[in-house]
Amino acid sequence: MGKNESTEAKTMSGLIYQVSDKPKILTAIILGFQNILTAFSGIVAVPLIIAGIAGLNVVDTAYLVSAALLASGIASIIQSRGFGPKKFRVGVGLPTVMGTDFGFVPPANTIINTMGGGMAGYFGASILGAIFEFVLSFFVKPLMKIFTPVVTGTVIALMGMSMMPVAFDWIGGGVGNPNYGDPMYILVAAIVFLVILLLNRYAKGMLNTAAVMIGIVVGYIISIPLGLIDFSQIASADWIQLPEIARFGIDFNPKFVVPFIAGYLVTVIETVGVMETLGEVTGSHLTSDDIVAGVRGDAVSSALCPFVGSGPAQTFSQNVGLIPLTKCASQFVAIVAGVILILMSLFPKLSTIVSIMPSCVLGGAGILMFGTVAISGIKTLSKVKFTNRNLLIIASSLGIGLGVTFRPDVVAQLPGILSSLFGSGISAGTIVALILSVILKDDPNEAEID
User: Fold this and answer.
1) Which terminal residue of the chain has fewer beta carbons within 10 Å of its beta carbon, N or C?
2) Where would you find the membrane-spanning parts of this chain (predicted)?
3) Domain coordinates in residue numbering, the chain
């Protein structure tokens, strides 16, 4: 592709950096760190919860956090780079950041406490479940046939909308915070939001591309005089933390994998949706083989992560929302982010600097990040013919998906696997969209509703 053609392609897609572009290393580090700031709270939150469930001491808890960063870095590189021949490729080859999802916390609690498997049982079940997900990846292609634009657009829109409560929990200071909703948190989030908004609209070059990171840094600095940051935690953190293989042991007892089956089924469904969204926001045409490679990337990463002390890996949707906002879809930047995560895992003091950031800072950025994902879905739906059939699919999926997101307790008492499958608004809405897409026959001659 010639220079003029490359420039034209970037203009048409709205991206400053395409998937194959390699920004200068300093630029890549800045943009990579921007991805880390966006994902950091999600990466470290699950190991902290798992440590609490297992009753681990401070030293073992700190190790779990470092292990989560290491595993996230490795998994992000696998998914972003992609390895192997096309038919058996592992990793989609698009910019992604990976980490352990909250959906795996309930089955982890069941294994560690109810079933008495402890941490060894949890890690063993994670690996066996990853093998299950790898096998499931070979059955994704038939699923892709019913991922029509009406289903894809609905899932992408739902993905952005269902993350909004998360953003506003961050703005409020985090779930469980005794000062939840303190006006000071809202003020900091509002400043971050406005900085990102104005830079994204009016700034040029790096100031535009790094708008999210700049906004977060501004919020971080403002939080210091407001007394929202406890720097004593940095002093108490170790300088170096080397990884250990199977520090807590690994128990491959098959009975422990049962609670994880539903979690991995949900992961497959959500990963397909995330891959579709990635294709949309990066301007990439993904084949069913590419989607399958993305699911395999999740599975292989989830099988490797427990060996270093982390739970199953899944692609983070918040980083997908970062792409259209920053106009950076560079695969190289995501790989650099993975390398930085690995380095941060080795130096706990560095990771602690980020971990003490108030959640309200990230909340200010979350509104725009998740909002842009929702708009990507709406953009896809704008190309869909709004017949009675398509309207029913969209309305039902968004209604149920958002309903579960806002009121998850409604489905908490569903029996067995149904509780897990419909426990997430994204998976619930996706399942409804897929089922209705099959049940409600498409009539090419059906008129569009005015």
Assistant:
1) C
2) 25-55, 61-78, 90-108, 120-139, 146-164, 184-203, 210-229, 256-275, 328-347, 353-378, 390-406, 418-440
3) 17-439
Strand partners, 99: 314
Tell me the whole-structure pTM to 2 decimals: 0.72
Q: What are phi and psi of 427, to 5 degrees?
A: -70, -40
Asked if residues 91 and 294 have their Cβ atoms less than 8 Å apart, the reply is yes
Q: What is the C-alpha end-to-end distance of the chain, expressed in Å?
A: 43
Structure tokens at 35: 């991805």
CA atoms within 13 A on the CB side of 382: 6
Backbone angles phi, psi at 283, to 5 degrees: 70, 30
Looking up tokens 């950031």 gives: 357
Q: Which of 399, 380, 390, 382 is closest to 436 using CA atoms?
A: 390
Question: Tokens at residue 133, please?
Answer: 């997900």
Phi then psi for residue 98, to 5 deg, are: -110, 155
445: helix, strand or coil: coil
* CA dist list (Å): 171 to 68, 359, 398: 24, 7, 24
Average pLDDT on 419-423 reads: 75
- The residues, any chain, with a CB within 8 Å of residue 7's CB and separated by 6 or more, are none
Angle made by CA atoms 228, 97, 199, in degrees to the nearest 5: 60
Report d(CA 182, CA 190) in Å as an integer: 13
- Tokens linked to 186: 């809202």
Assess whether pLDDT exceeds 70 at residue 193. yes
- What's the pLDDT tens digit per position in 20-40? 999 999 999 999 988 887 787
The residue-averaged pLDDT of 151-164 equals 82
- DSSP H helices, 55-139, are 58-81, 105-109, 118-136
- pLDDT at site 436: 93
Which DSSP letter does residue 447 get?
A: P
| Number of other residues whose CB lies within 10 A of the CB of residue 272 | 23
Integer angstrom CA distances of residue 167 from 230, 249, 435: 22, 36, 29
pLDDT, average across residues 286-304 = 92
- pLDDT value at 5 more than 50: no
Which residue in 115, 107, 117, 112 sits closest to 53, CA to CA?
112
Helices first, then strands: H and E counts in the chain: 21, 2
| Cα pseudo-dihedral 241, 233, 176, 311, rounded to 10 | 0
